[in-house]
């Protein structure tokens, strides 16, 4: 299993309005290496001052990478995409605060985390983080 870091720009797609509950499935940009069962961390930057920068949600990839077609209103239209099932979200504060835990850079697009970084992430997220086996 691999872990990917996905920056979320609240001005383009507000995760807090779109994701109403655990189990919500959403389309995100992908890399060709992604596999079903891989983990996606959703990171909010500093573009909206109301929210502290950090990881607010995570999910599991539930489709193989594909090119999203016929969705001109979607940011992922005509781009390599995957569907991600949300398994954890905090609407008020990040699970991992960027200011406290400098374990990954602020990437501009989806990025695979190195194994050593993923191990640190696992320690910082809630106990149910590794519970992805029955969520596909």
What average pLDDT do the residues reach?
85
Number of domains: 1
**What string gives the helices and strands in order?**
EHEEEEEEEH
Percent in helix: 10-25%
**Beta-strand fraction estimate:** 25-35%
Strand tally is 8
Looking at the overall shape, the CATH architecture is Roll
Overall 3D form: globular
Identify the CATH homologous superfamily.
ph1033 like domains
Low-confidence stretches: none
Helices, strands, pairings?
Blueprint: E1 3-8, H1 15-18, E2 25-29, E3 39-44, E4 54-61, E5 66-67, E6 80-89, E7 96-97, E8 111-112, H2 115-124
Parallel strand pairs: 1-3
Antiparallel strand pairs: 1-8, 2-6, 3-4, 4-6, 4-7, 5-6
Overview of this protein structure:
The chain is mainly beta. The protein has one domain: ph1033 like domains (ph1033 like fold, Roll), CATH 3.10.590. Helix content is 10%, strand content 30%. The protein has two helices and eight strands; from the N terminus they run E-H-E-E-E-E-E-E-E-H. Strands 1, 2, 3, 4, 5, 6, 7 and 8 form an eight-stranded mixed beta sheet that branches. The chain is globular, with a radius of gyration of 14 Å.
């Amino acid at each position: 299993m691999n872990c990917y870091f996905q920056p979320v720009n609240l001005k383009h797609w507000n995760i807090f309005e779109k994701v109403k509950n655990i189990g919500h499935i959403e389309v995100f940009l992908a890399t060709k290496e992604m596999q079903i069962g891989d983990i996606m961390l959703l990171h909010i930057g500093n573009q909206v001052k109301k929210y502290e920068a950090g990881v607010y949600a995570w999910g599991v990839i539930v489709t193989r990478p594909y090119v999203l077609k016929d969705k001109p209103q979607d940011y992922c239209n005509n781009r390599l995409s995957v569907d991600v099932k949300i398994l954890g979200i905090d609407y008020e504060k990040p699970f991992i605060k960027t200011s406290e835990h400098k374990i990954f850079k602020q990437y501009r697009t989806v990025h695979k985390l190195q194994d050593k970084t993923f191990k640190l992430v696992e320690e910082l997220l809630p106990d149910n983080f590794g519970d992805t086996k029955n969520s596909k």
